[in-house]
Amino acid sequence: MVPISFEFYPPKTDEQRAQLDKTAARLKAKAPEYVSVTFGAGGSTLSHTPEAVQRLHSEHGFQAAPHITCMGGSREEIRSLLKLYRALGARRLVALRGDLPSGMVKAGELRYAEELVSFIREETGEHFHIEVAAYPETHPQARDALSDLDHFVRKVRAGANGAITQYFYNADAYFRFIDDLRARGVDIPVVPGVMPIANFSQIRRFSELCGAEIPRWMAQRMQAFGDDVHSIREFAADAVAHLCRRLIEGGAPGLHFYTLNLSRPTLSVLDRLA
Ligand code: FAD
């Protein structure tokens, strides 16, 4: 098996904290290399992300990597967050542009992840291992696929050590993306982001927003199961485990699971891979 990592979102209520604790305790048995914690758009979770990072580190013993975004943050705010993360013992960050929630207009001082990566390097040198986001199926707002690739390469040259992809269900999109990067002289590890499926309508909604394609044959199958949630989950776990096997066989350096703070969908994939 390749190294694995898990992504969580920061809880805001006691109920969500209890859910994260339960999920973290169950996933710990899979010995992840690290876990990461998302950062809400527009700074709405300014304090929730550091709190979750601390919780996952001190109560669950994980190496926890906060996500940090350009959105809604001035250079000064980002500088203080970096200080805080250093004080909490973080050695890894996921650096992103972020998205503004609809209706919000306040963007940050930094416009693109590339600028954020440069800023983090200027402020903290080599202290942090920096991951950035990659889009084998192209970022939904990109002008076109080739300019998106060029922007990705610039982001790496600004100082990223590795990348995690947006989730996808077409292994060929990932392999082609890696070939394109290698042809441009980029050789950092690019870890596939894996989205286990617990709920078909939820995944269809997410995919429309982030530009991930659900292959027609998968969508047709899940649709045909109707309200039979058990069959949808079993089918999806088989399909996602098959995708992971192909990725590993094709040389993927790791797998990063989007858990949505639930353990079961991720465990059903991992158990099939064991
Ligand atoms: P960038 O790399 O800056 O690219 C954004 C767009 O701008 C692309 O279309 C790119 O082609 C274009 N672009 C880049 N540079 C230039 C330039 N110089 N000139 C013109 N165009 C340019 N969002 C959150 O809010 N919080 C999170 O915690 C979070 N975690 C994520 C984790 C992962 C692994 C992934 C894949 C995504 C995550 N996101 C998160 C979503 C992400 O913020 C969005 O996809 C966002 O729209 C783009 O972020 P980015 O860092 O890829 O942006």
TrEMBL record:
It holds the Pfam family MTHFR. It catalyses: (6S)-5-methyl-5,6,7,8-tetrahydrofolate + NAD(+) = (6R)-5,10-methylene-5,6,7,8-tetrahydrofolate + NADH + H(+). GO terms for biological process: methionine biosynthetic process; tetrahydrofolate interconversion. Gene3D superfamilies: 3.20.20.220. GO terms for cellular component: cytosol. GO terms for molecular function: FAD binding; methylenetetrahydrofolate reductase (NADH) activity. CDD domains: MTHFR. Its cofactor is FAD. InterPro entries: FAD-linked_oxidoreductase-like, Mehydrof_redctse-like, MTHF_reductase_bac. Keywords: Amino-acid biosynthesis, FAD, Flavoprotein, Methionine biosynthesis, NAD, Oxidoreductase. Pathway: One-carbon metabolism; tetrahydrofolate interconversion; Amino-acid biosynthesis; L-methionine biosynthesis via de novo pathway. Its EC number is 1.5.1.54. Belongs to the methylenetetrahydrofolate reductase family. NCBIfam families: fadh2. PANTHER family: METHYLENETETRAHYDROFOLATE REDUCTASE (PTHR45754), METHYLENETETRAHYDROFOLATE REDUCTASE (NADPH) (PTHR45754:SF3). This is Methylenetetrahydrofolate reductase. It comes from Vulcaniibacterium thermophilum.
